[in-house]
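User: My instructor asked us to take a sequence, write out its structure as tokens, and then describe one feature of it. I'm not sure where to start. Here is the sequence I was given:
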Amino acid sequence: MEVQIKENKIYAPLKDKWLVVKPEEEVRQRYICRLVDSYGYDLKQMDQELKVTNSQRGQGAARADIVIWKSAKDKTDSKSAFIVVECKAESVTIRKEDYYQGYNYAAWAGADFFVTTNLKETRVFKVVKGELPKKLEEIVDIPTAEMATDEKKVKELLNQTKAFTRDEFSRLLYKCHNIIRNNDKLSPEAAFDEISKILFIKIRYERDNTGTQIFSKDAFVKLKDAYNSMKSKDAPEFYQFLFEKTKEDFSKDNLFDPNETIRIRETSFEKIVEELQVYNLSTTSDDVKGIAFEKFLGRTFRGELGQFFTPRTIVEFMVSVLDPQEGEYICDPCCGSGGFLIRAFEYVREQIESELEQRKEEVKKQLIPENYDDLKPKEQEAIDAKVSDAFAKMNFEVDVNNAKGRLRSLSFDCIYGTDANPRMARTAKMNMIMHGDGHGGVHHHDGLLNVNGIWDGRFDVILTNPPFGARVDKDIKISEADKFTDEAKIKAYVKRYGEEYLTALRQVNDHIGESLLDQFGVGKMSGLTEVLFIDRCLNLLKPGGRLGIVLPEGVLNNTNLQNVREYFEGRAKILLIVSIPQDVFMAAGATVKPSLMFFKRFTEEEQAQYNGIKVKAFAEVQDKYIEELTSIENDLAKRGKEALPAAEKKTLRARKKEIEAAIDQETKILVKQRFDYVIPIADIKRAGINSIGIKIENDLEPLLEEFTKYRKENNLWNKRHANTSYQYNDGKMTRIQEVDGIVCEPEVFYGKD
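Assistant: Let's start with the prediction itself. The structure tokens for your sequence are:
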């Protein structure tokens, strides 16, 4: 069975008519095809947009997207439904609320199974009759049409809880990893590279087959036999051919070197394909794939490369503290496996989807009258059409294929990262693809140097865990090798960013042969990598931008770094300091006790205020010592017969240094008094994970709640307070904002002439 689309119409066989092509409608019709082709259901035992009523309350205007009965006769006899399916547009991530809402429909309909799908992600739940559970119980699959009338088989299926959990998938990946290490004798890191190649072959195959076929060993053998019957003498082995095609598909993502091949024997390849065939990566949620992939990464690289992995509890806390918003530019110049960028991407995506749901609820309130159930079918259809039209327009805003869409903008325009380790940069890209995108701005590059869209003054939010303890020596120079020389990309970047990109390149191009340390204000004070990266991050931020950074506690309390701390205090406000247990990072191979520090770079007004206070304070303190200083300088300037003896000059010079040190110290004290603000400090004993990676209680959660309240009450971001509402009238969606009590000019989202 095939989906029929002509121009802007799609055929709905369950209604026997052509409907306007909308994202949800296309998902529904494609899933109906899957029900027929893969599960054997007949169209006569299905219906779509069936009104489902809550029999317990005697009300409800809910419409189930697809309803399936055990047989056509059950449908004719108006018996309880067997399966209820809730469909969402492919571009919309299915939210927890969708599961519960759809589950209500399924429970009202008396169904045994509830399915939610956007084709990219399909999940199946057991319906517990007569109650709404606190936790939805996910199961493996729905039954085929043949199984539907076999009560024993249906019961068995209802008892098969979903096997594809994050932990189990992570364990399976590690099992595959060991197959390679044992059979092909590769290092852990090299074995990981081979697993990644196979995962992307599998993703490509299952994506191209729209989620209906799994990349199994049987499928591989059949395809290989067909390939071998036609291949030329010089053609590569089939599994190498599959990888070549996968490289072509992902070429724009720079995941693999053009000359890269699969470096394991075919028997190992087939064994891994067989192990992975129980899972369909095309229909697996990004959340499950992504977190499982992260766990696998952590186990694989623990130890030597453990520094590239920040524990998830820390990542989630730091992202939530800085609260990135839609349209803000986000960067991690030491991105490792991409944890901060992934969570920031998810955090903003969740905001967009939540706001979209809010607007949909507003539309439903405005368009669906209380007496909807009493209206004539044609009147209901007219209302449904208006609601569907509004929903379709809103869904188009988050369609990844919409060049101006909100999720596309988030993925392509707002997420940037670099890592100096090529394997980690590649891993970050893979990790981000597993989580659902946002990988295009990630590069293999020195995080202290500009590349692509990463340059000073561009970012709203930076989150990072820089390398600790290493030093950049004075004799390390910026060289020709640091130049970005890909002319095609330079041309593309200039087109994308304008002349500002060429200015960014001058950070390297104009300083060839100069010390790298000289490019940073703090470089004269320290060459420690963690210190240089604080400076780099503050440089990258816009005025008022926010930074969250993991640092060794020595940066806070080492007396040798006092001048460094004072330097940064003159550039940014400290928002929050959190001391966390040392064992949190032990699972990632770290041995230094860490702290989490949050800064806000001064706004232009704050910088001017700070500089003004500093100048005035210096002048005031200097006045106290000016007479003595002047006298000393005059005495030291005497020549000839009036010149003082060497010993006396030595004493005066020592006194002059004492006075200058006193002026400096007293000025700093005055500045601190006059540029005074609260710095919240927290000492956390439990941060959600222990030294061996086991989950424990997480004191960061109540801290986040407390800090968020404090941050909003004190308006730490210096942003204006806004309340937003939405109105839908005559085909137009209008956003109305009230900022600081003043109603702004309404903004029409869509429906403009």
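For the description part of your assignment, you could build on this observation: The chain has 23 helices and 23 strands. Try explaining in your own words what that tells you about the chain.
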